[in-house]
């Protein structure tokens, strides 16, 4: 349990937090949200004493944090920052083991822990443990940043806009992963964000701050239904329903139920499946579900010989779009191609969905006439 | 011509090169130890450094000749005189690079390290020095190459090294002697540079190398 009791914080003469009291329970996922400069980072960094408080007290499990040796305190609290802050001179494994090393765990125990953690986020040990941060993508780097915070199994994790610098798709994936980690490991997580979508998605309870004060401390549902102040209402206004046609992405106009076949399927099987579903072509993927190309029923009839595999005749040279691209581009692309649908890919080349005339029309209709419940 | 020069002076040349190397290695090592410690200390004291570093850089501009001359009045003709003078000259490039290397380490990394619960010493050893190492080594490289040329001055007070060839050449108007001292000195500087580059390449983790 983390308790703030009448906490005050000033930078020189500038009082940024006057009198802050709050209680966070064990295992809660708390998001702190509010306009820029309202004191979110300041509040977070008081918990691991990166910021000194001027008055009041902060207790963890009833103990005043000023009575705990400062480095011991920090070794017991995970800390993740927006700038990621992985040490570039250390490998992935070394970065993850920083705190266990400070705690003087044995070599084997540390290695076991690193393996266990990498497994948690599906990054194979053999492939990644000995890479350096700059050899990873931004999303992978922040995954390692999260693992570094989790490494010594601290009960509390502090996160300061950890996904703020990532692209929307990667951010979404990391949010899901963190949510699942929180469910599995039952940590107390204090997560700063300025993105209401993120707060609503992640939090058990949300702290809405403004000028160093708490305007509302409530569950997402309560905050959405009964915002306690006009400032919160305005913040909620920015939540994503406010799409206009120019910022629709492919994700907004695609259909996600897609039929794909593995490259090793026989051509005859495919014809059967296509007939059953009454479709004229099919998307072929490899063993990792990555997009390879498209086969039409005409091609199979033309080139297919009994026993041939679908990968032998597939058309690899087809237009695709990335899920986060503007829908308008997809639209143009779509009308230039002869196919009656356009394949939408995730960053990792797996199939996210397809855009058809129908899916496009539905998306546009919902924009014009308001939300439409299905997709 | 080269053959006859080597016949006549070969063994003297080898002795001179070895003496030269001795002066360079000892002076740069001593200079490095002082500069490294001072650089670390100054990087913790930014206010003091903004005064101290400009003053030191002025000292650097006193000609070596003047300095070695003055010093030799006190310590006399011995290797120590040369080594003290060269060491002092070797300090500044290393000091400056150590200092700059340390204060330019990304502040968010230092905060990340504090957030992990490292104490100041651990942050220095595990984060700051590794990240400053490229700058420090390039300071050592600079000092070494300068010292090779400054060590020529050792001959001025009769303590040998490649300078002896050069001074004798000047005295006797013998171009072969001057060139015979200058070329090995230049090659020596290149060789030291090359060796330091190799060592640096070996020691730098892949994560810090430039593409
Ligand atoms: N190190 C500092 N020195 C002086 N003022 C600071 C410092 N850090 C933050 N502040 C001030 O404190 C206020 C709150 O900052 P911060 O906690 O970083 O806000 P947020 O994270 O909500 O954007 C701001 O007005 C900011 O200018
Ligand atoms: Mg902030």
Label this structure with key terms.
heterodimer, A: 375 residues, alpha/beta, Rossmann fold, CBS-domain, 2 domains, six-stranded mixed beta sheet, four-stranded antiparallel beta sheet, 16 helices, 37% helix, 24% strand, globular, B: 211 residues, mainly alpha, MetI-like fold, 8 helices, elongated, binds adenosine-5'-diphosphate, binds magnesium ion
How does the SSE layout of this entry go?
The complex is a heterodimer of chains A (375) and B (211).
Chain A: E1 2-11, E2 14-24, E3 29-33, H1 40-47, E4 55-60, E5 63-64, H2 70-75, E6 77-81, H3 92-96, H4 98-102, H5 107-120, H6 125-128, H7 138-150, E7 156-160, H8 168-185, E8 188-192, H9 196-202, E9 205-210, E10 213-218, H10 220-225, H11 230-237, H12 250-253, E11 260-262, H13 267-277, E12 281-285, E13 291-296, H14 297-303, E14 320-322, H15 327-336, E15 341-345, E16 351-356, H16 357-369
Parallel strand pairs in A: 3-8, 3-9, 6-7, 7-8, 11-12, 14-15
Antiparallel strand pairs in A: 1-2, 1-4, 4-5, 9-10, 12-13, 15-16
Chain B: H1 2-44, H2 46-59, H3 64-75, H4 79-103, H5 107-116, H6 120-150, H7 162-172, H8 175-203
The structure holds adenosine-5'-diphosphate and magnesium ion.
Structure, explained:
- By secondary structure, chain A is of the alpha/beta class.
- Chain A folds into 2 domains: 2-236, P-loop containing nucleotide triphosphate hydrolases (Rossmann fold); 250-369, CBS-domain, CATH 3.10.580.
- Chain A has helices at residues 40-47, 70-75, 92-96, 98-102, 107-120, 125-128, 138-150, 168-185, 196-202, 220-225, 230-237, 250-253, 267-277, 297-303, 327-336, 357-369, and strands spanning 2-11, 14-24, 29-33, 55-60, 63-64, 77-81, 156-160, 188-192, 205-210, 213-218, 260-262, 281-285, 291-296, 320-322, 341-345, 351-356.
- In chain A, the strands form 4 sheets. Chain A has a 6-stranded mixed beta sheet with strand order 6-7-8-3-9-10, with helices on both faces. A 4-stranded antiparallel beta sheet of chain A has the order 2-1-4-5, with helices on one face.
- In chain A, a hairpin with a 2-residue loop joins strand 4 and strand 5.
- Chain A is globular.
- Chain A starts with a strand and ends in a 6-residue tail after the last helix.
- The mean pLDDT of chain A is 89.
- With 211 residues, chain B is mainly α.
- Chain B has one domain: MetI-like fold (Orthogonal Bundle), CATH 1.10.3720.
- Chain B is built from 8 helices and no strands.
- Chain B has helices spanning 2-44, 46-59, 64-75, 79-103, 107-116, 120-150, 162-172, 175-203.
- The longest helix of chain B has 43 residues, at 2-44.
- The mean pLDDT of chain B is 89.
- The A-B interface holds A 48, 50, 70-76, 79, 81, 83, 85-91, 98-99, 102, 132-135, 148 and B 108-109, 111-119, 122, 126-127, 130-131, 205-208.
- The complex binds adenosine-5'-diphosphate and magnesium ion.
């Amino acid at each position: 349990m983390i308790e703030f009791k009448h906490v005050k914080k000033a930078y020189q003469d500038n009082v940024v937090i006057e009198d802050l009291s709050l209680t966070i329970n064990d295992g809660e996922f708390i998001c702190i949200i509010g306009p820029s400069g309202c004191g979110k980072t300041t509040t977070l960094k008081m918990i691991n004493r990166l910021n000194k408080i001027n008055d009041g007290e902060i207790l963890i499990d009833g103990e005043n944090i000023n009575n705990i040796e400062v480095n011991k305190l920090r070794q017991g609290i995970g800390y993740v920052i927006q700038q990621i802050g992985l040490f570039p001179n250390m490998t992935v494994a070394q970065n993850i083991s920083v705190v266990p090393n400070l705690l003087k765990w044995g070599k084997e125990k540390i290695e076991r822990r690193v393996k266990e953690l990498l497994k948690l986020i599906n990054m194979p040990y053999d492939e990644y443990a000995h890479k350096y941060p700059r050899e990873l993508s931004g999303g992978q780097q922040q995954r390692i940043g999260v693992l570094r915070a989790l490494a010594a199994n601290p009960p509390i994790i502090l996160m300061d806009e950890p996904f703020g610098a990532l692209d929307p798709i990667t951010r979404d994936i990391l949010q899901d992963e963190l949510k699942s980690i929180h469910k599995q490991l039952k940590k107390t997580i204090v997560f700063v964000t300025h993105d209401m979508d993120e707060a609503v998605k992640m939090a058990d309870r949300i702290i809405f701050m403004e000028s160093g004060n708490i305007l509302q401390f409530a569950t997402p549902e309560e905050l959405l239904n009964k915002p306690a102040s006009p400032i919160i209402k305005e913040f909620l206004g920015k939540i994503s329903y406010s799409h206009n046609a120019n910022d629709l992405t492919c994700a907004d106009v695609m259909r996600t139920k897609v039929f794909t076949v593995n490259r090793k399927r026989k051509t005859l099987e495919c014809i059967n499946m296509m007939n059953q579903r009454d479709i004229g072509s099919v998307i072929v993927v490899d063993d990792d579900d990555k997009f390879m190309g498209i086969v039409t029923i005409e091609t199979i009839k033309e080139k297919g010989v009994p026993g041939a595999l679908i990968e032998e005749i597939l058309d690899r040279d087809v237009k695709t779009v990335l899920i986060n691209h503007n829908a308008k581009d997809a639209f143009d692309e779509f009308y230039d191609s002869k196919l009656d649908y356009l394949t939408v890919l995730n960053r990792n080349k797996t199939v996210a969905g397809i855009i058809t005339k129908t899916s496009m029309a539905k998306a546009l209709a919902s924009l014009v006439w308001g939300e439409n419940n299905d997709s | 011509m080269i053959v006859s020069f080597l016949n006549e002076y070969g063994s003297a040349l080898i002795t001179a090169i070895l003496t030269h190397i001795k002066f360079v290695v000892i002076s740069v090592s001593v200079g490095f130890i002082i500069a490294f410690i001072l650089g670390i200390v100054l990087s913790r004291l930014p206010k003091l450094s903004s005064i101290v570093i400009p003053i030191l850089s002025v000292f650097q501009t006193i000609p070596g000749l003047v300095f070695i001359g003055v010093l030799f009045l006190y310590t006399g003709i011995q290797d120590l005189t040369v080594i003290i003078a060269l060491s002092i000259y070797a300090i500044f490039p290393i000091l400056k690079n150590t200092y700059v290397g340390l204060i330019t380490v990304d502040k968010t990394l230092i905060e990340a390290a504090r957030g992990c619960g490292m104490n100041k010493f651990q942050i220095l050893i595990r984060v700051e020095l590794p990240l400053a190492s490229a700058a420090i080594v390039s300071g050592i490289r600079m000092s070494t190459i300068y010292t090779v040329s400054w060590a020529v001055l050792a001959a001025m007070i009769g303590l040998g090294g490649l300078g002896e060839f050069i001074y004798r050449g000047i005295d006797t108007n013998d171009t072969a002697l001057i060139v015979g001292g200058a070329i090995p000195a230049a090659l020596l500087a290149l060789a030291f540079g090359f060796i330091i580059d190799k060592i640096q390449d070996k020691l730098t983790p892949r994560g810090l190398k430039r593409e």
